[in-house]
Amino acid sequence: MILHSILLGLGIRLASAGRSGEHRPPQQCRWDSGSRLRLGGEPSCVALVDDRTAAEIGSWEPWAYAPHCVYPPEQGSASKLCVYTYHSANGEAGLSLIATPEMASFVAGILSARSEPWGEFPSWQLSPGEARRAYEVVEVPGKGLGVVARRKIHRGEVIIRETPFVLGFTSDPGAAAGGEKPGLVEVAFTRLPEWHLERLSGMAVSTGGEWHEDVMRTNTFGVMVDGVEYSALFPEIARINHACRPNAFTRYSRTTLQMEIVAQQDIESDEEVTITYIPQNLLTADRQKLISRRGFTCGCPVCSTPSVASSSDANKSRINAILGTLRDLGPQRTEKILDELWQEMRQILAEESLHAQVAEFAGLWADLYWAAGAAAKAREIAGRVLAERVFYNGKDSERAERAKGFARKFEG
Ligand SMILES: [Zn+2]
Description:
- This protein has 14 helices and 13 strands.
- By secondary structure, it is of the alpha+beta class.
- It folds into 2 domains: 10-123 and 163-239, no CATH class; 305-408.
- A 6-stranded mixed sheet has the order 1-2-3-7-9-8, sandwiched between helices. A 3-stranded antiparallel sheet has the order 6-12-11, with no helix packed on it. It has a two-stranded antiparallel ribbon with strand order 4-5.
- A hairpin with a 2-residue loop joins strand 8 (221-225) and strand 9.
- Helix 10 runs antiparallel to helix 11.
- The radius of gyration is 23 Å and the shape is globular.
- Residues 1-43, 119-124 and 172-178 have low confidence and may be disordered.
C-alpha cells in the first residue's frame, strides 16, 4: 500500500520559524507566543531544548537523547532543525520528531499533558476496556497487505488509534543538513525503541532513493501541528488501502497527536477496511490522474466498472448543478425549494460516500434557510453541522470549534 501526504515545501514551512540566532532561555514557556491550544484548561510550560542548551546544562529532558541539530544552508533565514526522540517511562513506546526547537517545545507540552500513560499498551491498539481488536493485517488479493475486519464493526467505532512513530519534515531534510550525514530522518528512526525499528523495516517503499526518506514519502499523512503541516508516520494505519468510496475515515487529534480510523458505515466481518488517500469529490478523469501521480492503483468498483464510474461522475456533476441552481435563484430560494434540493443533495452525498462533506453543505443550507425566513430549520441544520464536525473531525478540532460559533449565529 502506498500513501503520499500532501506536503508543503521545506522553504514554506521554515519561513514561519524563528531566526537561527534567536534562543529562548530555558524554562521560558512556548505558550506565550500566541498559540491558542489549551490542554486541560491550563497551558503546559515546557522548557525550550536544543543542542546548545543541552551542551550548556547537560540535560535535555523530556527527550531521551540530546537533540541532533542541523542548520539549513541559508544561515539566518530559518531556524535550525533538530531530531528529538521521546521514550515512554517503560521504554516501550517512542516518538521521533524532526522540528524546530520551538515546535519541539510545543510537542513536549502535548506529550506531558496526555491523559493516558504512554506506552502502557502497544501504540496501535485501543486502550484496555475498549472494544477488542476488530481487524487483522493480512494479504489482500492484488493489493499486498491490507486491513480486514475480523468481526462486524459498527458505524462510529474506532478501529485503530495510533500514536505516530515519526513526525517531521520529509521534503529533503538532506538539503537542510547541508550534506551532513546521516540525514535527520535516519537519526529519527535509529533513536526509536528497538521494536519500532523492526516494524519500520517492513514498511512499503515507492520512490527509491534514501530508504528512510522513501519510507516517509510513501507512508506518511499530512497533519497539522500548531498550525504547521507535518508528515506523520503511523505504521499500522499505513497498512490500510485506498478506495474511492471508503468505509472508514481518518480523525486526527491536534491535542494528542493520535490518529484514529473510524468506521463511517457498518463494516461486515471479512470486509476490507478502506480510507481515501485523495480528495473524494473528483471526477473520474481527474481522480485517475491524481491516483497515478501518487504512484498507486485503485481497483475499487468506481475505478474498475465503467457504469459505476459514469454514474458517480453524474452524481458529482449534479452537486455542482444544484449549487448553480441555488446561486441563480437568488432571493427566490423558498423553503420548499431548499427542502427539495437538500433532500436530493443528501441522497447524492450518501450514494457517493461523501459523508464527511455533509457538514460543509449543511452549513450552506443553514444560511440559506435563515435568509429564506425558515429560522427553525436553519437552527436545526446548524446543529447538525456541529454534530458532523465532532464525528468526522473530532471534538477538539478547529472545525468543531468553528461549528460551535456558527450555530450561535442562529440563536435567538
Ligand atoms: Zn477507486
